[in-house]
Design goal:
The chain is an alpha+beta fold. The chain is built from twelve helices and seven strands.
Length: 340
């Protein structure tokens, strides 16, 4: 019974400390204030917490647990996925800030105090941070979020959300007396814009039907490319191998050029992929060529993707779209006239 009573007293003291430290600040709050608010004598408080710093640590870890439970619960039980998750996050933090201003205030107070207490609170929130970073990484991989360092993105989100909720005086000066719903909506819009994936140009896709076996067409496309398309090409058809395609006095404009790349996949008779244009930097793209058996013939499909929405990227897209169509025509002619 005594143990249960002691635990209840400790919880009451911690709750009062959260309220006092989070509302009035650590320096402005005395142990007498906390003891009086908890309805006990100061000596009883010191039995549980020998110093004011010990009490601050307990209160800070309790506040961290409240934050963890609120955000983790909101995201786990009602996760819409993608960038819509931002609405759930901001709504949960907004509700917490409205209902528990003391908790938000105490988290800020801990940041002012600094290590080692801030490190303890950060450790308590680490699983939440790790889960959020994993979500961002997965969203980036799925193309739902702009690629960037996920933890840097989290810092941006944290700074925007917490600053928005806690710097009320600054918010009033900058945003006036806008309603809570309006400012919350604008915050979500800001975060969406910061995380939205970069727009993309369409992929180049083309195909042709070649009356030759896939293995022969594959060889012609890789190491035999000088027979129909380039002059002095160097191709190492293994994963990680180098590609150098060269043209001399090519076409009606007598173009002399060079393109370098790296082989990403080399599956003889089936698939060849490489990344090229990296020396240009602005529009490096990935090319995937597949060779599909169709009776005793081959369907060759080319996909060239990753063009960026810049003037240089758009120009490269138009040039390569025409170039790949011409290349497949030449490949077909060479394969059917020289192999078959």
């Amino acid at each position: 019974m005594a143990t249960a009573t002691g635990a209840a007293t400790r919880e009451r003291v911690v709750a009062e400390a959260v309220r006092r430290f989070g509302t009035d600040g650590f320096s402005a709050t005395s142990l007498d204030d906390v003891a009086g608010g908890a309805g006990i004598r100061k000596q009883s408080l010191l039995y549980h917490f020998p110093s004011k710093e010990d009490l601050l640590e307990a209160a800070a870890l309790h506040a961290a647990a409240v934050v963890f439970e609120t955000l983790d619960g909101a995201l786990r039980h009602d996760d819409p996925g993608g960038l819509d998750r931002l609405d759930a996050l901001v709504s949960a933090v907004h509700a917490l800030a409205n209902e528990r201003t003391d908790v938000i205030g105490l988290i800020r107070e801990v940041a002012r105090v600094g290590p080692p207490l801030s490190d303890r609170v950060a450790s308590a929130l680490q699983p939440l941070v790790d889960a959020a970073a994993q979500w961002l990484q997965a969203a980036m991989d799925a193309g739902e979020v702009r690629r960037q360092d996920p933890r840097s993105a989290l810092l941006t989100i944290y700074s925007a959300v917490v600053g928005h909720l806690t710097e009320s005086s600054v918010r009033r000066v900058l945003a006036g007396e806008s309603s809570s719903e309006t400012t919350q909506s604008e915050l979500v819009s800001f975060l969406r814009a910061a995380l939205a994936p970069d727009p993309k140009l369409p992929d180049i896709r083309c195909a042709t039907f070649v009356r030759a076996e896939p293995a022969a067409v594959y060889e012609l496309f890789t190491t035999g490319i000088d027979r129909w398309f380039t002059t002095g090409a160097e191709v190492d058809p293994v994963e990680g191998g180098a590609i150098v395609w060269r043209w001399r006095d090519w076409g009606p404009d007598r173009v002399t050029a060079e393109a370098r790349g790296t082989v990403l996949a080399a599956e003889p008779g089936r698939r060849f992929a490489f990344r090229w244009g990296e020396q240009e930097g602005e529009y490096a793209t990935t090319v995937e060529v597949t060779f599909e058996q169709r009776d005793d013939c081959t369907v060759v499909r080319v996909r060239d993707f990753g063009y960026r929405p810049t003037p240089m990227g758009a120009e490269a897209l138009m040039e390569c779209a025409a170039g790949w169509g011409e290349a497949l025509t030449l490949l077909k002619h060479c394969a059917e006239s020289c192999i078959s």
